[in-house]
Amino acid sequence: MKPKRDKNSPTRPQDLKPSDDTEPLPGKTPVPVIFFVALGLLMLWAGLFLTSNAGGFNSKVYGAYHSVQQLEALRPKSDGDKIFLEGKEIYGRTCVPCHQPNGAGVAGQFPPLAGSEWVLAPKADRIARIVLNGLQGPISVSGTDWNNAMVPWRDVLTDSEIASVLTYIRNEWGNKAAPVSVDSVKQVRGDTKDQSEAWTAADLQKISDQ
Ligand code: HEC
Questions:
Q1: Distances (CA, A) of 10 to 13, 24, 25, 77, 86
Q2: Which of 84, 95, 118 for a ligand 1 pocket mutation test, highest count of atoms within 8 Å of Cβ?
Q3: Most CB within 10 Å of its CB: which of 35, 92, 155, 165?
Q4: Which residues, 6 or more positions from 112, have their beta carbon under 8 angstroms from its beta carbon?
Q5: 80 CB contacts (<8 Å, ≥6 apart)?
Q6: pLDDT at 197
Q7: Which of 133, 108, 125, 137 is nearest to 170 (CA)?
Q8: Which residues contact 150 (CB under 8 A, 6 or more apart)?
Q9: Residue 99 Cβ < 6 Å to ligand 1
């Protein structure tokens, strides 16, 4: 009977178990586990990035513009365009809650700017005063009577911002009137620096708007 060989004593070469410090076989570089961890994290990040930036993969998100020419056409072309767009932005953050995005105001509370004879006057000296100090008491706008109060913006908006927002309201929603210069707003601000209260329509009617 052959003697039983001890399984743990590696006597034959095919019994040799590869140990950790064995050289890798040529052409088969081992991939470190950290690589898969990093890949997993990268894919997680990419997934999160796409979820928040890809617009839900909705074709309409990208469908709005079809060509570079179309986008070019939307860019402001002149200084007038820039002032109008700046005014639109200021309107959106200061006047919209009351006068509404369509300039129609709110019945019984906030008068319309669209079609308003105050807004469309040849000179903007009255409406510059309204924005600087606010307005209170009875006023007639486009044949309707209002009696409420508008807040002042003297300490919030600069001359240039007031000029832009007035230029905007005079040329939006079908309105068409001359742009308002920064100098004219500066002049009105200086002329009215001692005015601390809101204007009344009666006060403003004493000032020429021609
Ligand atoms: C808190 C609400 C409110 C905000 C904000 C407001 N307004 Fe007014 N606005 C009024 C009210 C109310 C009147 C009428 C006041 C009255 O009855 O005496 C008025 C009147 C006016 C008028 C004259 C009347 C007319 O309809 O033409 C103009 C012009 C005007 N606002 C422009 C602006 C502009 C520009 C802004 C932003 C810079 C603005 N308003 C922000 C409430 C507001």
A1: 7, 21, 21, 85, 85
A2: 95
A3: 165
A4: 99, 103, 104, 105, 141, 142
A5: 179
A6: 96
A7: 125
A8: 98, 130, 134, 135, 136, 198
A9: yes
Q: Which atom of ligand 1 is nearest to the CA of 148?
A: 17
Task: Say how far apart CA 203 and CA 28 lie, in whole Å.
Answer: 91
Atom number in ligand 1 closest to CA 146: 17
- Structure-token pair, residue 177: 């009137």
Q: Given this model, what pLDDT does residue 79 score?
A: 83
pLDDT at 11: 59
pLDDT recorded at residue 75: 78
- For 87, 185, 210, the CA distances from 191, given in Å and listed in that order, are 23, 10, 17
Which residues in the chain come in under a pLDDT of 70?
1-27, 56, 59-64
CA-proximal residue: ligand 1, atom 6 (nearest): 95
185 lines ligand 1 (CB under 6 A): no
Longest Cα separation, the chain: 131
Tokens for 114?
Answer: 């669209």
Whether residue 168 has its Cβ less than 6 Å from ligand 1 = no
What are the angstrom distances between the C-alpha of 97 and each of 1, 88, 133, 140?
A: 103, 14, 18, 21
